[in-house]
Amino acid sequence: MFAGNPAAVCLLPGPVDETWMQKVGSEMNLSETAFLVRERDGFRLRWFTPKTEVNLCGHATLASAHVLWTEGVVPESKKITFFTKSGKLTARRTGKLIELDFPSMPPSRCALPDLLRRSLGVTPKFAGRNADDYLVELGDEDQLRRLSPDFGLMSGLGTRGVMVTCPSKSAEYDFVSRFFAPAFGINEDPVTGSAHCCLGPFWGKRLGKKELVGFQASPRGGVVKVRLEGERVVLGGKAVTVLAGELR
């Protein structure tokens, strides 16, 4: 829920079959549905898109921490530890923000696959990738906002998704991005916290900064604050509860 990205959070009494979790994720039909099970020193956390499980998700982790605090499962003054496919993650309140401690996942330069070039319809300034996604740098924000990808082509890339980025023309932000993951059932994600584990180090090195603010220019739009701490990236955002209920 980085400034407007919806996520569903399911707090479970114990482990359940992953086929069931995938069915619930498909039924919720949001970018991600998070499933939480209490463990001795924290919570086991898994994330499912409408099509598949993912290794890392920012907004559903933010939403999970928010739910655990606001529902009284964890005292609001206490840090929360999550055990995930991407290792141990933590969440803490800092003023009005929730801060997530995530792994840094910078990109390495790579040749631009022809399939990616054709799906975007542009020639980038830089192409790179990390373990999960491609990163494509464009020349200006107007070009980024005009993009209308061919999602059918893009879904054949063999990665989770594609982040497209450029410098911000507004002094309010350091960089702008969009994120596409059609192979995972998400043509365009409103705001993608995990992508900022790559975007933060990329722009931090370019701009010589440890603290940055990114704007994700999806139709819904959202802001992510990023702080670089060595091999970790701290992401800051806010969350609100819009609906609560019992799943039968």
Word description of this protein:
This protein has 248 residues and is of the alpha+beta class. It folds into two domains: 8-103, Roll (Diaminopimelate Epimerase, Chain A, domain 1), CATH 3.10.310.10; 108-230, Diaminopimelate Epimerase, Chain A, domain 1 (Roll). It is built from six helices and 15 strands. Strand 5 and strand 6 (87-94) form a beta hairpin. The two termini are 25 Å apart. The mean pLDDT is 94.
Count of separate DSSP helical elements: 6
| Number of DSSP strand runs | 15
Residue fraction in strands: 25-35%
Helix content: 10-25%
End-to-end Cα distance, whole Å, is 25 Å
| Architecture (CATH level 2) name of the largest domain | Roll
The class by helix and strand makeup works out as alpha+beta
Biggest sheet overview: 15 strands, mixed
**Mean pLDDT score, rounded?**
94
Task: Name the overall outline.
Answer: globular
- Uncertain runs with pLDDT below 50, 5 residues or more? none
CATH superfamily of the largest domain: Diaminopimelate Epimerase, Chain A, domain 1
The CATH class of the largest domain: Alpha Beta
- Count up the domains: 2
CATH topology of the largest domain: Diaminopimelate Epimerase, Chain A, domain 1
Order of helices and strands: EHEEEHEEEEHEEHHEEHEEE
- Computed Rg: 17 Å
Short description:
The protein has 248 residues and is of the alpha+beta class. It contains six helices and 15 strands.
Outline the secondary-structure elements:
Elements: E1 8-12, H1 18-28, E2 33-39, E3 42-48, E4 53-54, H2 59-70, E5 80-84, E6 87-94, E7 97-103, E8 108-109, H3 114-120, E9 126-129, E10 133-137, H4 141-146, H5 151-154, E11 161-167, E12 175-180, H6 196-207, E13 211-216, E14 222-229, E15 232-237
Parallel strand pairs: 1-2, 3-5, 10-11, 12-13
Antiparallel strand pairs: 2-3, 3-4, 5-6, 6-7, 7-15, 8-9, 9-10, 11-12, 13-14, 14-15
